[in-house]
Every structure is written in C-alpha cells, then in structure tokens.
Inverse folding.
C-alpha cells in the first residue's frame, strides 16, 4: 500500500516528469508526475501544469466545479496554515469536492473507496514558480481498493476530472 504523505512530498519536490499514463487514462494529461515506488503499477497522481497563479488556479477550479453542480466541502490553504505557526511553505492548497451522483456509483463497486472520497485536487507552486494541479488517478483507486467490474464508472470519473482540471489550468 502506498502512503499518501510521501506521495504528496514527492509531488512537491519532484523534478522528474513522465509523459506516460495508464492506458485507459492516457488522455488525462500529457504531464504526469510518476510515482517511483517499486510497488506501484499505476501512476497515483495525474498532474497538469497550470497557466495561472496558484490562487487563480484554485479559484477557477472552485468556480468551475460549483457551476457543474459539485459541492465544495473544504478548501484548505496549507501555506496560510503554515504561516500561522511561523513556518514557510510554497503555495499548497487542497480543494475537497464531490457529487453523490458520481461518488455513490464508485462506492457501490467497493465501499472501501469511500476512504478516498470526496475527491480532492492539490494545487502547488514549485521552486521554479510553476503551478501544478493534481488529483488521484482513478486507475490508482481501482488498484488500491481492488475494484472490479466498474471500468465504466472509473472512466466516467477520469473523464470528468480531466475535463475539470483542463478547464481550470488552461487559457
């Protein structure tokens, strides 16, 4: 099992980019930060470079998902929280969101996936001032929770996440 904390750290610190993705989600992004863990068969995160600032990317994503009928459960500004305890952190924000019409279908396949729901996106700025938007690869969730017989639901989720992410990150 992959620990999400090192994955988030790898995402923030990684300069190694790969342009491969799991076959059924290859359309998700031309830019994927690859999980180098030897136990992973699937890239755990799909990452797209944003053409906007971290705040603008997060604001755009939030606006887009609200317009599409998604619920925003939380928006966590880790940089601001770090500053509150006199620590520094580059722009790092998480938006937690969902739609029970989609998420419930996935939980009907395997209730354990609920630990990874609602969906989340991570918006970060790296040391080179590049802004990234990342989300869990649905194929990673399939592998992590041994989901069988739900490829149509997983592909629907992948397409929705990809569409939302592209809309928030491109001009």
């Amino acid at each position: 099992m992959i620990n999400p904390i090192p994955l988030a750290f790898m995402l923030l610190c990684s300069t190694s980019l790969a342009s491969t993705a799991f076959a059924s989600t290859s359309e998700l992004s031309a830019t994927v930060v690859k999980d180098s863990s030897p136990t992973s068969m699937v890239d755990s995160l799909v990452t797209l470079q944003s053409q906007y600032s971290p705040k603008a990317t997060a604001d755009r994503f939030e606006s887009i998902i609200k317009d599409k009928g998604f619920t925003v459960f939380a928006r966590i500004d880790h940089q601001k929280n770090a500053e509150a305890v006199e620590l520094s952190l580059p722009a790092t924000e998480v938006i937690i969101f969902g739609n029970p019409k989609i998420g419930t279908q996935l939980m009907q396949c395997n209730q354990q996936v609920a630990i990874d729901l609602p969906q989340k996106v991570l918006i970060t700025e790296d040391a080179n001032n590049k802004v990234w938007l990342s989300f869990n690869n649905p194929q990673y969730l399939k592998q992590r929770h041994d989901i069988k017989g739900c490829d149509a639901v997983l592909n629907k989720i992948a397409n929705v996440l990809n569409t939302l992410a592209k809309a928030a990150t491109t001009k």
The first strand starts at residue 45 and ends at 50. The CA atoms of residues 77 and 93 lie 5 Å apart.
